[in-house]
Design a protein that fits this description.
With 380 residues, this protein is of the alpha+beta class. Helices cover 52% and strands 16% of the residues. The protein has 3 domains: 113 residues, Acyl-CoA dehydrogenase/oxidase, N-terminal domain (Butyryl-Coa Dehydrogenase, subunit A, domain 1); 89 residues, Butyryl-CoA Dehydrogenase, subunit A, domain 2 (Beta Barrel), CATH 2.40.110.10; 155 residues, Butyryl-CoA Dehydrogenase, subunit A, domain 3, CATH 1.20.140.10.
Length: 380
């Protein structure tokens, strides 16, 4: 297999990252304000094509870490993580996570044969998602068969993020000699997508049924385990960044409410009990941000340990986002439990994110496996 394209870019300064973050934040305030989120999440498609094309064309939200020769910006996963953080804060209704955080890392890691699919994704002309029908998330295996050089995939799998709207399906399936990576065009009649009703209304999921669907092979005869693991490390780091954005916005909303809501002639933010809860939320958010930044740095430069940092971020950021968004509902009082307030939308995104790439307990278990041999050697 051809070696994957390097995505390590010259170091971006903190000031440049802050400038990028501000640019993305301002763009999302214009293209995806809170009122637009509620309209879009209730639309038949679940996201607006014209908004997606503007985000890809003007900001390059999919290809920041993609090399320039493949249509990207040639930066790193640190910049891509900034976009995911702001998208989480805005509850962006778009196929950003599926395309930029799941599909692109896998395509880059898979090698030259897969790279032809990347430029249309960067331009916003097509979207993609990943079906984990083999490997660590394979509770519903998909089987791949080859006959005279032609591949087909069969099976049913759910849930798949943006599975009902993605143009390209990247399928990790069980092949004759082990897992393989295949590409399917979602428009073919042998692919049936059934939308699912999920907790998070701002990000659609679906059940996909493949009836000997035609596919093209992107990997060698067997997919190297390190290819999938490399992609998953990046996906976990980007998901952690999104969770930080979700938690930060929930904290911001809570602080603003505590300053304006008056009880007994005083803003509720002046009460010690509210101060303490807000302080606990802040600690969780800042700790999660440190973990997410370390993970993005690790998958971009190789330091700190790229096998460890994404797992730490995946476990900690998921729990922090759920805790902070849950507390935000409580501190908003009766208002926080209403459909009209956005607090429940952030809570639902946090709860759903926690399940996307494995539960925190699974990350902790894998982290123990990664650390175990080194710890044993150190104490021998």
């Amino acid at each position: 297999m051809t070696a994957p394209v390097s995505v390590v870019a010259p170091t971006t300064t903190a000031a440049e990252l802050a400038e990028l973050q501000d640019t993305v934040r301002q763009a999302l305030r214009s293209l995806s304000p809170p009122e637009a989120v509620r309209t879009t999440m209730d639309s038949p498609h679940g996201w607006e094509a014209h908004v997606w094309k503007r985000l890809c064309g003007e900001l390059g939200v999919v290809g920041l870490a993609v090399p320039e020769q493949l249509g990207g910006s040639g930066l790193s996963w640190r910049e891509q993580a900034v976009v995911l953080e702001e998208a989480g804060a805005a509850l962006l209704c778009a196929p950003l996570f599926a395309t930029a955080a799941l599909a692109v890392p896998l395509l880059l890691a898979a090698g030259e044969r897969a790279h032809a699919l990347i430029p249309p994704l960067c331009r916003g002309e097509r979207t993609a998602t990943v079906l984990f029908g083999a490997g660590p998330f394979s509770s519903q295996p998909l089987s791949a068969r080859a006959h005279e050089g032609t591949w087909t995939v069969s099976g049913t799998i759910a849930p798949v993020v943006d599975g009902a709207t993605a143009d390209d399906l990247l399928v990790v399936a069980e092949g004759p000699t082990g897992p393989v990576l295949l590409h399917l065009d979602a428009a073919q009649p042998d692919v049936t997508a059934s939308p699912l009703v999920s907790l998070d209304l701002t990000r659609r999921q679906a059940k996909l049924s493949l009836a000997a669907a035609s596919a093209s092979l992107l990997s060698d005869t067997a997919l190297a385990p390190q290819v999938l693991e490399e992609a998953l490390r990046i996906s976990r780091a980007l998901l952690a960044a999104e969770e930080v954005g979700v938690a930060q916005r929930a904290l911001d909303m809570t602080v603003a409410y505590a300053k304006s809501r008056v009880q007994f002639g005083r803003p509720i933010g002046s009460f010690q009990a509210v101060k303490q809860k807000a302080a606990d939320m802040l600690i969780k958010v800042e700790s999660a941000r440190s973990a997410a930044h370390a993970a993005a740095q690790a998958v971009s430069t190789g330091t700190p340990d790229p096998a460890i940092a994404p797992l730490v971020a995946a476990a900690f950021c998921a729990e922090a986002a759920v805790a902070v968004t849950s507390e935000a509902i409580q501190l908003h009082g009766g208002l926080g439990f209403t459909w009209e307030h956005d607090a429940h939308l952030y809570f639902k995104r946090a709860r759903t994110d926690r399940e996307l790439l494995g539960r925190p307990s699974a990350h902790v278990g894998q982290l123990a496996d990664e650390l175990g041999p080194a710890s044993t050697r150190g104490t021998a």
